[in-house]
């Protein structure tokens, strides 16, 4: 099938994708999108994290004068500075490398209601949508066109056979690290959990099928979430699991999947979305960083996940990272159904401290936090005397396939989820999460530097990873947030 769908079919596919991009009557027009552009010099100073003197500014303006586009001007200026004034300044060079992709031409994202790096923003533009207001009547009723031989297909993720198809697509084609050593291996049970919360819409879980065997070549998902952003309630779609089969990459299929999910979400009168990605596209609301706590240092070194610190023999490294065999918090036990109400109250009260957070219903807390084997673990702290519950910890299970090792095939990874600490220090609570994860034979415990995590990570012997996770909003403008202002975990 992949061979047959080779060059000829690819051209056809690209053409059809381009058509799908144009056939959107409800698409933004240039004028709707055009927010006043800021001076390219301001963009350059922001990128560098440095103020420029008047002579340098003049020189840069001359350098970039012949560039026709705004993005081109900024790139030319950055390029000039990289080769001259800052050629030896590693910090500035790193800053430039970090933002340069935002000044690439983004054929798709530049046409979407997302913030752009070149916009001149004032405070009055925050906390509102970017697009002109629309109603469901403005949304095209029919799906975007796919090339001949490809069709849209809703996925019934509760059905084992269809869930298996999504599983197969993702385990073979979903996110890998930069060196292609590991690939996420979301289990079927995990996908069913993540994609069927109370009130989920079955048509927001869909993909593209094609070929003789009607195989799944792409997938995207959305679930409805109730968010609070800088005090304002916004109902959003949480978009996740965007994946295109390796054989159909760079043919704009991803953009059609994104447009189609947007259409399906809009039909529910929902106009905003939240999503995360490792890649930098226009324009993150926050840039967060993964940290890793080794639980099985020997295996992590063997598979190339971590490296031994200089002059440290393995035995010393293992000893350094050894955790107590037993948890220390009195009254720690698995969450049960009867705890849902109190956990719901604790979670929402805690999350309200953050500028961006979810607001959970009781049914959602039951769905997302009640323990599920191989998917999510939640432990509450029940006071042995009063039986009151004021704290809980949770983590989810997301292994990765190890792609290039003879012996080890799976990396067992726990991810920090939601934790609330009122009667015990947060550090002790998370240390207990590490101990439980170790008891359950996980190799590593991952956490983002969001919520309060950053303050504890070093103390708990997490090491900073090289991966960033960018948080994005679709059609909602906010100032940039620090990771510790984010109270949402996307699985
Ligand atoms: C991400 C993925 C679906 C993109 O597909 P692709 O075939 O490489 O890209 P396409 O040609 O279809 O589309 C390119 C457009 O998608 C955008 N894009 C790429 N990855 C994206 C992402 N993760 N989220 C949103 N947009 C993305 C690109 O920026 C580009 O738009 P632009 O021209 O405006 O910059 C594909 O690479 C994939 O399945 N990767 C592995 C899984 C993965 O990383 N999923 C995303 C998890 S966040």
TrEMBL record:
Alphabetic keyword roster: Acyltransferase, Transferase
Domain Glycylpeptide N-tetradecanoyltransferase C-terminal, residue spans: 302-483
Catalyses which reaction(s): N-terminal glycyl-[protein] + tetradecanoyl-CoA = N-tetradecanoylglycyl-[protein] + CoA + H(+)
EC number, as in UniProt: 2.3.1.97
Domain annotation Glycylpeptide N-tetradecanoyltransferase N-terminal: ranges: 130-287
Iron-sulfur among keywords: no
UniProt cross-references to Pfam families, sorted A to Z: NMT, NMT_C
GO molecular function, one term: glycylpeptide N-tetradecanoyltransferase activity
KW Acyltransferase (keyword) present: yes
Transmembrane segment boundaries: none
One cellular-component annotation, GO: cytoplasm
InterPro entries, A to Z: Acyl_CoA_acyltransferase, NMT, NMT_C, NMT_CS, NMT_N
Function according to Swiss-Prot or TrEMBL: Adds a myristoyl group to the N-terminal glycine residue of certain cellular proteins.
Recorded family membership: Belongs to the NMT family.
UniProt protein name: Glycylpeptide N-tetradecanoyltransferase
